[in-house]
């Protein structure tokens, strides 16, 4: 049994873990392990927003970002996904990951100009980037074989870790929790730069990407996931999207991942921005929508036991104020972190 | 909004609360407030055990304890309840409360001799006592008007408290949690004293009494409680009774409270002995049986909202080794804390 916190990030605690040292989780889970030399990772979300069929400008923009994502100076890993938001807009989001800030910076400056530098007919574009110190970040995987998201750029997976399967495990897996309550500071502010709108959020903003992969499931398990678990998950995702603000969820996207050939894969993820890790904890632990998700997942897993083929993972970051970048061009005013600031007039 | 920890028990923390200082619970709850001069309370469980119809010896024994409980030197409050245990034995348990150790000690010595001093035909008897420092104890009530259990001897109820409606609130309400992880020490041991069997447990043994009162509910709410919530609660209680040991629950009793006239009231409580507060936390938060209870309660409360007439309360103690007393005479070997030690031969 390993700690989710790698040895080189262990510090003298001023804050305790939520479980005793002899805690034994009831089932195995795993975390991504970066090379010890990696002190920071980058997760960059590039969105294109439109209504109805894919406009020509969107196709061109996606082709451009494809070329840049595939470049040898590009990210170590990326994926692309899609969802229809609360305003009925289609959103196509490419997520790219780096473990080298200098490489990212060099790649990002010209890419940003392409993406949000000038408006295009009929589409909006946005960029949401975190570049957290690894001590501000954690992952969790239900099985070790198939990394997703930021874990795809890690050195590999851990063995079974201790800090999971209890409320508070998420916090306990973040190395900074050893010494810091990660309290949010201030309110998000809107900065106008011509047509570009930037959101300057605040210390300890929280991002979660929480995914599921049902591609390995067969007949009865697949039916159980799609008929019983997925509708409850979707209901929770819709709640966060539509009514999350009152409980500290600035924005939520329930994304369906594309295959490499552009078709829909059997993978999805929820991606949400939160005022604080504490707000995310409260929703997960107590809100009826997530209690239902948790109950459905518990029932699913206790029905199937170790034979379950559904794969679950998440990644959570609590970012310092200077580790964040949000920029929107020609997007509707409830897009991403724009929803966290005063509505923007025409 | 008050802290559940009264001002005179606030200490400089070496351990943090689980929620930020600006946490706002989503609904009100209340705690018992003792007079500041009360530094210790006593909760004493007197059980009589038999099979089938009430034997004459049981009637006599209950009459004797009734006389002692009603004496002017007796407890400040007591109640009586009944359940059928996993061996099919009837158990009639009187629970008495004091806030004055000297008075309790004077009353207890002769009462103990009556209760477990000599065996009676066809019945077993047992005594389970905690006498915790108030810093090792917490209560929680869904409404302030009708104290139950130990709260009946308190000075009154608090206003709305902050530390509830999140996992970890129970721990955060116990004043000792400000500085102590309340880790259990050692294993329970059996001590034979002739026919009397005593269990010497260990530091930080945990007791919960968790009750529900549906006497104020009307038609549809009553039906919802009895048809939907109660069966799920019973299932969880049965699990703890039959299979709790593996997860740190030494014993569980799902009791139906008697009215003063001896009939069954519309009140029940679960009373269980745990290896540690942490073990109780893990069951409550993660075990499918309690996740179901929690889900049913959440659904119930979100259906009814503030109009709910069901009353819920609990009291939790984490006792030091020298605050405990367990004594059994002629009881079956799975009675109470006997279940936590090696089976006792004939």
Give the oligomeric state of the chains in this entry, treating copies of one chain as homo and distinct chains as hetero.
homodimer
Strand content of chain A: 25-35%
* pLDDT averaged residue by residue of chain A: 94
Rg of chain A (CA only): 19 Å
Provide an overview of this structure.
The structure is a homodimer of 346-residue chains. Chain A contains 6 helices and 14 strands. Chain A has 346 residues and is of the alpha+beta class. In chain A, strands 6-13-10-12-11-3-4-2-5-14-9-8 form a 12-stranded antiparallel β-sheet. Chain A has a two-stranded antiparallel ribbon with strand order 1-7. In chain A, a hairpin with a 2-residue loop joins strand 8 (189-193) and strand 9 (196-200). In chain A, helix 1 runs antiparallel to helix 2. The longest helix of chain A has 25 residues, at 219-243. The model of chain A has no long low-confidence stretch (mean pLDDT 94). The A-B interface holds A 15-16, 18-20, 23, 26, 165-168, 181, 183, 276, 278, 281-282, 285-286, 288, 291-292, 294-295, 298-299, 302 and B 15-16, 18-20, 23, 26, 165-168, 181, 183, 276, 278, 281-282, 285-286, 288, 291-292, 294-295, 298-299, 302.
């Amino acid at each position: 049994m390993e700690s989710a916190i790698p040895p080189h990030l262990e510090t003298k605690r001023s804050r305790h873990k939520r479980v005793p040292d002899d805690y034994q989780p009831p089932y195995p889970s795993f975390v991504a392990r970066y090379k010890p030399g990696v002190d920071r990772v980058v997760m960059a979300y590039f969105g294109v927003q439109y209504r109805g069929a894919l406009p020509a400008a969107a196709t061109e923009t996606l082709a451009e970002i494809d070329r840049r994502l595939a470049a040898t100076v590009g990210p170590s890993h990326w994926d692309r996904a899609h969802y229809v938001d609360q305003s009925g807009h289609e959103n196509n989001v490419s997520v790219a990951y780096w473990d080298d800030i200098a490489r990212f910076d060099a790649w990002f400056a010209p890419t940003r100009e392409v993406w949000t530098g000038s408006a295009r007919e009929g589409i909006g574009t946005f960029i949401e980037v975190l570049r957290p110190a690894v001590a501000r970040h954690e992952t969790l995987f239900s099985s070790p074989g198939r990394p997703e998201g930021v874990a795809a750029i890690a050195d590999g997976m851990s063995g079974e870790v201790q800090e999971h399967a209890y409320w508070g495990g998420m916090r306990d897996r973040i190395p900074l929790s050893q010494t810091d309550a990660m309290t949010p500071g201030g309110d998000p502010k809107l900065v106008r730069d011509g047509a570009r709108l930037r959101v300057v959020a605040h210390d300890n903003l929280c991002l979660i990407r929480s995914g599921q992969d049902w591609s390995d499931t067969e007949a009865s398990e697949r039916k159980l996931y799609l008929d019983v678990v997925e509708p409850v998950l979707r209901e929770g995702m819709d709640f966060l999207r539509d009514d999350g603000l009152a409980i500290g969820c600035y924005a939520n996207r329930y994304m369906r991942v594309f295959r490499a050939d552009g078709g829909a894969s059997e993978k999805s993820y929820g991606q949400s921005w939160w005022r604080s890790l504490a707000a995310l904890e409260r929703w997960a632990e107590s809100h009826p929508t997530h209690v239902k998700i948790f109950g459905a997942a518990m029932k699913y897993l206790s029905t199937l036991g170790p034979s379950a083929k559904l794969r679950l993972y998440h990644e959570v970051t609590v970012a310092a104020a200077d580790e964040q970048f949000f920029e929107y061009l020609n997007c509707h005013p409830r897009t991403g972190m724009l929803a966290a600031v005063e509505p923007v007039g025409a």
